[in-house]
Amino acid sequence: MMPEKWLAIVLLLLVGMFCNALGAFVGVNIGTDVSNLPSASVLVGILKAHQITHVRLYDADAHMLNALANTGIEVVVGVTNEEVLGIGQSPSTAATWINRNVAAYVPSTNITAIAVGSEVLTSIPHAAPVLVPAMNYLHKALVASNLNFQIKVSAPQSLDIIPRPFPPSTATFNSTWNSTIYQMLQFLKNTNSYFMLNAYPYYGYTNGDGIFPIDYALFRSLPSVKQIVDPNTLFHYESMLDAMVDAAYYSVQAFNFSVVPVVVTESGWPWLGGANEPDATVENAETFNSNLIRRVLNNSGPPSQPDIPINTYIYELLNEDKRSGPVSERNWGVFLTNGTAVYPLSWSTSLQATGNSSTVFCVAKEGADSDDLEKGLNWACGQSQVNCTAIQEGQPCYSPNTYQNHASYAYNDYYQKMRSGGGTCDFRGTATTTTADPSYGSCIFSGSSNSSSSGGTSPSSAFAPESLSSRSPTLQVPRLGVLIPAMLLILISL
């Protein structure tokens, strides 16, 4: 292998290591059942314009893989359901597939995973016997190409393979698939891969016969009397997605496997539905996806695995108007084919320090108690003289209508005005500073230089409500220091 190619591969691996070290990510699925589908270059332009760093393709389209070259965007390529049978019966077919659809594009195109089929066990159950063999053959072909450390192999499955996902602690996989799922988990464990799960709170809510409130599905805070609790573990679930992911973790544990990380390969909310689909609205879709991004990018996991982020791919980039079924099936897209956003959505709304390090914002902590946030919000918009006009109904920062969102805006407005006089970003433990700009759409958060952010004193009673408590988990900040010496040593050796 030429030294130049070695260098390219090393750099690509280092980029992957840094991306992983930075923690959680939100990506997007790109379906192609679209009339007037934009060109690959236009689609990649949309991704770049909105700083979308991860994509999942349902096939290995050459135009898309070429257009994604040299962008740094992490790519999951898909083996179609039609291809699974052939690959699962022939190692040579698998090797040909890898050579043609993966090896031919790396390292220029940052392919990091292969998704084998789409919900094979529930959509084409007759292919179940060859699913894991297909995964094995593809992995062996990656080994032969020296790509197995860079590229993982997994197979997205529907939550439907878990018949009773709540309470999560008693969830188990459908016993019909026990043999296949056991083999799959063994493969994932042996190859240090992860379990791909398609999880849709929209369906969990609409098919739930009113068991769960819609606020639970939309990541909105619930009053203490309505909080969702697993009776066996006493874990509180702030969102339905957290519970769905935990159901997968407990189902894996039921096979006596240690932790296999779960990545949500599909989740989202439709923005238009038929007469019998009243919950498919623009407002709900915006609320769900905005809060999903906030939830994922706080870099924490579900209650049973708090240290494993819930990395998620939103379904989907464009409306697939050629799909059959109810109206909602054709209206999950975040963008129109001309690149216009269906609703404002910030793909970088997070508490991660990925923004401009010279600017500091104050936001409500993810997971802060909703009652404490309500008290902090009321105080900020009352006696502290914060301008809360922007979070009133009809104003740019009203949606999503959550204590988390509204408190973040009010806390930040207070902090920017009062920090020079001793006000801090604390609010009895419900707030934190961040260099990630929480602005989204036309909702703009003012920022301030962090040159004077150190050494702040706790505010007196004039600067924060005394009734707030400090019950809130501490955010974990990833550490990159150990990677820097390794990178330097590798580059020097070259």
From TrEMBL:
Protein name per its UniProtKB record? glucan endo-1,3-beta-D-glucosidase
EC code(s) of this entry = 3.2.1.39
Reactions catalysed, semicolon-separated, are: Hydrolysis of (1->3)-beta-D-glucosidic linkages in (1->3)-beta-D-glucans
Q: Which family does it belong to?
A: Belongs to the glycosyl hydrolase 17 family.
Upper lineage ranks? Eukaryota, Viridiplantae, Streptophyta, Embryophyta, Tracheophyta
Q: Which key words are in the record?
A: Disulfide bond, Glycosidase, Hydrolase, Signal
- Quote the Pfam families the UniProt record gives: Glyco_hydro_17, X8
Instruction: Check the UniProt entry and state the signal peptide residues, or none.
Output: 1-23
> Locations of Low complexity compositional bias?
451-461
InterPro entries in UniProt? GH (IPR017853), Glyco_hydro_17 (IPR000490), Glyco_hydro_17_plant (IPR044965), X8 (IPR012946)
Q: Which organism is it from?
A: Vitis vinifera
Which class of enzymes does this protein belong to? hydrolase
Highest taxon of the source?
Answer: Eukaryota
* Residues annotated as domain X8: 360-445
Coiled coil (UniProt feature):
none
Region of interest (Disordered), ranges: 451-472
